[in-house]
Amino acid sequence: MKIVILDSYGANPGDLSWDGLKEIGELTVYDRTKPEETLARAAGADIVLTNKVVLGRKEIEQLPCLKYIGVLATGYNVVDTEAAHKHGIAVTNVPAYSTESVAQMVFAHLLTVTNRTEHYAIQNREGRWSRNPDFCYWDTPLTELAGKTFGIVGLGNIGKRVAEIALAFGLKVKALTSKTADALPAGIEKATMEQLLAAADIVSLHCPLTDTTRHMINAETLRLMKPTAVLINTGRGPLVSDADVAKALETGTIAAYCADVVTEEPPKADNPLLSQPHAYLTPHIAWATREARIRLLDIAVSNVKAWMEQRPQNMV
């Protein structure tokens, strides 16, 4: 059995092991694969694992040996699943491996805005506190979360975990969700998009990217939010219009934007969010804790073994 990993580096830059796959067959691992290299590298492989390398209809039709595609992520839009199914190729993903890590990042971002710990740590390494005439100082607003309203768009695994943490902070939680009001966990109030945006002090996006949700946060919906509101996006970059959010920050329509994702990754140097002082961007690392990546690799290997034993799991 020939196994090829097209872009290993994102999930495993060398600190974890692919030994589980080596036990199954002949393994070839590439750190990164350019689009023009995909066919040559995947040629002859029975099993191909990919994170961000696209396996579209064109690639699938030219890989006659391919029997299985494993996506090293939860989202599987890099694979033309219709073409794969047409050619009898199994496709799997890795769901729910990063729930705890992503939820943690939501609040790391939020606390960056409310407490600015990194700002003060940098200043004090440069001697600011040592020069201060008083025992303390602050030069940014400091905000208490308890009692404020936290709006969650999408109440899947991550959204529910974020809601639990928000409740532990003493926040009031509203959610835009397909679930009925009586099916929601205690402490969560169902709301429409308009109600949520108008009431929330913090809005956190946790819905899938679809034709309906693409640019759901735009100039029009941003105007519904409080000027003191914090918008958080650890879901998908295109859920928001980068340009509209940057403009909203510039004009004071909202107070801050915290994101682990942008529409195009890596962002172009002229992405307007990069120059906004109240945009706090991390480089798509919410999922990337060591613990979450270990789960990712373990599930990916388990998916392959289950498929080979004719008891497939996590099929898409």
Description:
By secondary structure, the chain is of the alpha/beta class. Helices cover about 30% and strands about 15% of the residues. It has eleven helices and twelve strands. It has helices at about 20, 40, 55-60, 80-85, 100-115, 115-125, 155-170, 195-200, 220, 240-250, 290-310; strands at about 1-5, 25-30, 45-50, 70, 90, 150-155, 170-175, 190, 200-205, 230-235, 255-260, 280. The strands form two sheets. Strands 8-7-6-9-10-11-12 form a seven-stranded parallel β-sheet, sandwiched between helices. Strands 2-1-3-4-5 form a five-stranded parallel β-sheet. Helix 5 crosses helix 7 (about 155-170). The two termini are about 20 Å apart. The mean pLDDT is about 95.
